[in-house]
Specification:
This protein is α+β, with helices and mostly antiparallel strands and 382 residues long. 35% of the residues lie in helices and 27% in strands. Strands 1, 2, 3, 6, 7, 8, 13, 14 and 15 form a nine-stranded mixed β-sheet that branches. Strand 4 and strand 5 form a beta hairpin. Helix 1 crosses helix 10, helix 2 crosses helix 4 and helix 6 runs antiparallel to helix 7. The two termini are 24 Å apart.
Amino acid sequence: MPSPTDFLELLQAHQELVLANALLLGEFPSPSGGEEDRIKFLAERFSTLQDVSIDEQGNLQAIIPGKNPNFNVLIAAHADTLLTNKADQRLTINVGPESITGPGMADNTIGLATLATIPDLFEKLGIQPEANLILLAHTKSQNSHDLAGLRFFLENFKRPIHAGLVLEGITLGRLNHSCLGMVQADVICRVHQEPGTRWEAAENAMIIMHRIIRRILEIPIPQEPRTSVILGSLRAGKTFNRPPELARLKLEIRSEEPGKAREIRYQISDILDEISSETASDCSITFPALRKPGGIPFNHPLVAAAREVQEELGLKTTTGPSYSDLSILIEHEIPALTIGLTTATNLNESDETVALPPLLTGLAQVFGILQSVDTLESILAI
């Protein structure tokens, strides 16, 4: 049975497979809800596998059959990026000796490319896993879609899933095994100005939003359990000489304490009601995404096995909670981990760049963890 370092050596000859997939996938714009071209490409890659299908949400699934037909492990990667390009446009990807650059390459083209490469690598290494490996490229994970694709898959998949592994492009060494409670809030303040109103007499949505922000920052935030309110985006106004009629604030509340994010959410709603009535403005709030805290403990056998793999590969393990794809698996009580595959720079920029030398270690990590999961069959498949 190969060790993680054995996998690292065996995969040396096959790194170009994941690089080729990353290059081809990276050329397809894949905004959330517009992943069709990537999904069609992957469906062709998976055509020789079992149960290849695309569901109503556009998710692609395929199965690498294992030796035990009753043991199922999910490997998932989200297919969308934060791009806003039209689906019929082609992106420019640049490949160098040490890196590959392009929009969305780290999040999550390289994760999706790894998913695409796993069947070929199992075949070339001559290995059949113990578990059935359910490969999932899921859609609509970003922004207001709130992981709709993954939610739909888990609500409708008929087989039991005994463990899950979420592939993210970054950062190599991460090991998420739990999820923070999280609320995303979209706050809009609107005022109504009469035509011809002098600028000094007009209502100003930016000033009202500033008042809202000041009140939000006055909310007591506990240090333990860890809790934070992140003010992520503020937009208002269009020109120099007219007070803005609309201001928009996007923020995120995170907490390890069950119910704390929801509690702060209600406090912010009360602040908006109060300021709206005092200023005769129209202040509203919506919640694009919600997460419950949870996960598996640090000493869970799955976490321990993954830590051993990372240690053998010389990686410095960084544990901590996540608040993305992993949270949906946690909601469905599936023991699961999120891992990173390489390192990156210029995140969320058009020249987002991932490093190629660490990627081989990232691939070896995937195979080492999957092999360790096979040894946990009697614990997980109960």
